[in-house]
Amino acid sequence: MKLRRLKAIAVKEVLQIWRDPRSLMIALLLPFTQMFLLGYGVNLDLKHIPVCTFDREGSQLSQALLKHFQASQYFAIVRNVNSYPEMVAAIDKADCGLAIVIPPDFSERLNDSETASVQAILDGTDDNTANIAFGYAAAVVNGYSSDVQLSWLDRQGRTLQQIQPMVVQSRVWFNEDLESRNFIIPGLVAVIMALVGAQLTSLTISREWERGTMELLISTPVKPSELMFGKLMPYLALGWLDAAFCLALAALWFGVPYRGTLIALFLTTTLFLFVVLSIGYLLSVLIRSQVGASQIALLVTMLPTTLLSGYVFPIDQMPPIIQDITYLIYSRYYVAIVKALFLKGSSIPELLTPILFLVVYAFAVMILAARAFRKRLD
Amino acid sequence: MFARITPIVIKEFIELKRDKWARFRLLVPPIIQMLLFGYAATFEVYHVSTAVLDLDHSQESRELISRFTSSNRLNVVEVAQSQREINSAIDASDAAVALVIHAGFAELLRKGQGAPLQVVVDGTNSNTALIALGYVNTIAAGFAQDYATDLAQRIQGVQGMRQVQVTVEQRPWFNEDLNGRWFFVPGVIGTLTLVIIVNLTAFAIVREREVGTLEQIMVSPIRPAEFILGKTVPFFIIGLGEAALVVAVGILWFQVPFVGNPFVLLLGTMLFLLSTLALGLLISTLCSTQQQAFSMNFFVLNPFFILSGFSFPISSMPQVLQWFTYINPLRYYLVVIRGTFLKGVGLTVLWPELTAMAAIALALLTLSILRFRKSLE
What would the pLDDT profile of A312-358 be if each residue is shown by its tens digit? Predict the structure, then answer.
């Protein structure tokens, strides 16, 4: 490999990028706008879940329970219904995701020192929302239950501990406020970089074929590996710029805490860029039409990256076969690295496994790409 | 008029028949995507890896731990010997939940003095953490409840001591087991149709423009509206076929129940297809090369996909983005699909969504036809 030839290719590629402002704009604007738009859209936190109440008793005690729901920031009581069909209609129309039904003997049971039970009717269409809404509802009802117990014990002259032998003290690490944005946005950076990176280089060789300039290139003494590195370098610079944009937005605009070192972020991001750029390059070598190459690039990056990288859907919840497949998804490693760097502040030795996987991936793809390129016109 | 449209329709189908690559694109990716979504997309939380540290070694602490071990929600992967091991298990993501029982647990428990169970949760994935924490609380509450009843009986000798409390029963409708697949699989019908139809339409017209055959067609006696109709009818039919294929995989392979009226779904699908065709047409008028159409599609479709309620609840988005979802046909179509599949609701409930889709389709079609005419001049 000669540095002079490598440099010549790189300069040529830079000029080509520079003189095609439209593509350059896409390369720079696309990640920015997507990050901005999607950063707000990807959010699993639930607040103000619309609630219907069906108070079949209408007593002081039942109303007190509903007040607890009203006071919770997770719920917004949107309607008080008076009949069962009315409640069914509200759930059918998705006017509310949760209906609280208080039985007619609610206060009677409590006054008799018995267990009173309320029903939480959930719109199970969205299972995750239903699950979380029920968790919050259970917390509200538990809070109310302790209030009732306290006043009951007070009347009996006893203390709460007699019925609370155990307390759960929970602490949340790394993402203390349990904000979904804090884990989705670092993953989103990885997804956007995977998509944009492969798009950038997926055209670089097919364009030469389509425009007929490949014949010229082949007649020069340039070697396949020089061509590859020469072509990758300018895009690496673009990739750095895009990544810096996205990461800065994540940390500064969206306020995701960054706890790692910058050098670790720089090194791992560069490694990941090498992987995605060389995958785009490989596709470009294999497929000689521009549209074909970029379509395949999107096909092999978009779906696996969004679904199988673990950026929203946890990998350990997938069936074993799918989990095995995710080892082939290079974004998986970078998603894990970025999340760990942001939230856990992990150091490079702690991230050694995903880094090694990325190194192997980068070498394998680059060797394949350099081999696949033949200086032949057929 | 029909005499001029039919040849275009036939031409389009012949082109498709001869294009092996296009046929591949129509059949294979949808099925792969459907399978991937069906298996990989889930927010359900089972078998959360759990580390346990029992410093009490009492009968009570062992019983508490066995309650966690026997739950299929938590999976005890590590029995630690020290607090440090617990910390490193969470740091290294070997465990997402850690339970710590300190020495003296049983004693406090017996005295009824609020024995602490310490729970550490890796909050990195906030959704999993939230749900896992809910399970831990439920299991712990069950244990505490049983123990309290037991204790009251022993201390006070009261048989079946009555206890005042309020409990809540979980009653999920439409999806009793809260199966995540039932939520995602029907949704894929919408996202797949959107991506495939917009791509097909945009590319078909841009290709004619790029290759130069568009001019040939324009010198023929066909009118622009007729050309558009001839171009879109085949894609409309293909779209219906794609939707049927995906619905079949969902019902037959993934066993998602379909309890509603198929004709309501068909009506919704047709209205949705009209909007996607118009969107594809609109994109084609903004691009002169297939390459541009490709970038444009990506640029437009990704937000449509994310801001539709497909996986992220619309009600959690900021107000401005919520406004945007009102012009997103996929938003309405997803309500129609999930409504007909799981809820079994009909026109009386879904008419607002169907009307909105019809309005969007009409607006987009008018806009795209006007723009298309202009782009020919």
Answer: 888 888 888 889 989 999 999 999 999 999 998 888 888 999 999 99
Superfamily (CATH H level) for B48-156: abc type-2 transporter like domain (3.40.1710.10)
Are A261 and A347 contacting, i.e. CB atoms less than 8 angstroms apart? yes
Q: What is the CA radius of gyration of chain B?
A: 29
Is 80 exceeded by the pLDDT of residue A166?
no
Chain A contact set for B121 (CB, 8 A): 170-173
Q: How many angstroms separate the CA atoms of B289 and B301, rounded?
A: 18
Do the beta carbons of residue B146 and residue A199 sit within 8 Å?
no
CA distances from A282 to A204, A210, A231 (A): 10, 16, 12
pLDDT digit string, tens, across residues B22-73 = 777 777 878 888 888 888 888 888 889 999 999 999 999 999 999 999 988 8
CB of A97 closer than 8 Å to CB of A49: yes
% pLDDT > 70, chain B? 96
Contact B312 A43 (CB under 8 A): yes
Q: Compute the distance between CA of residue A353 and CA of residue A144 in angstroms, rounded to an integer.
A: 48
Do A29 and A87 fall within a single domain?
A: no
Q: How far is A311 from chain B (nearest CA, A)?
A: 9
Q: If we measure between CA atoms, which residue out of B168, B341, B365 comes closest to residue B282?
A: B365
3-class DSSP state for residue A317?
Answer: helix
Same domain? For A156 and A190 the reply is no
The ipTM estimated for the assembled molecules is 0.82
Average pLDDT over residues A66-92: 92
- Tokens (6 digits) for A219: 């007649």
pLDDT value at position B158? 53
CA distance B301 to B295: 10
> Rounded to whole angstroms, how far apart are CA atoms A258 and A250?
9
Choose among B122, B147, B298: nearest Cβ to A165: B147
Task: Report the candidate in A101, A225, A168, A161 with the shortest Cα–Cα distance to residue B120.
Answer: A168
Q: Are residues A288 and A211 in the same domain?
A: yes
B41, B119, B178 member nearest A169 (Cβ): B119
Structural domain count, chain A: 2
How many angstroms separate the most distant Cα atoms in chain B? 100
Best of B77, B111, B127 to disrupt the A interface (most A CBs within 10 Å) is: B127
Using only C-alpha atoms, chain A has a radius of gyration, in whole angstroms, of 29
**pLDDT, tens digit, 9 for 90 and up, residues B265-280:** 999 999 999 999 999 9
Rounded CA-CA distance B373/B36 in Å is 40
Q: Which of A39, A79, A49 is nearest to A185 (CA)?
A: A39
Angle ∠(A36,A42,A46) on CA atoms, nearest 5: 130
Across the interface, whether the CB atoms of A170 and B144 are under 8 A apart is answered no
A35 and A66: one domain? no
- DSSP label at residue A40: H
Q: Indicate whether A36 and A53 sit together in one domain.
A: no
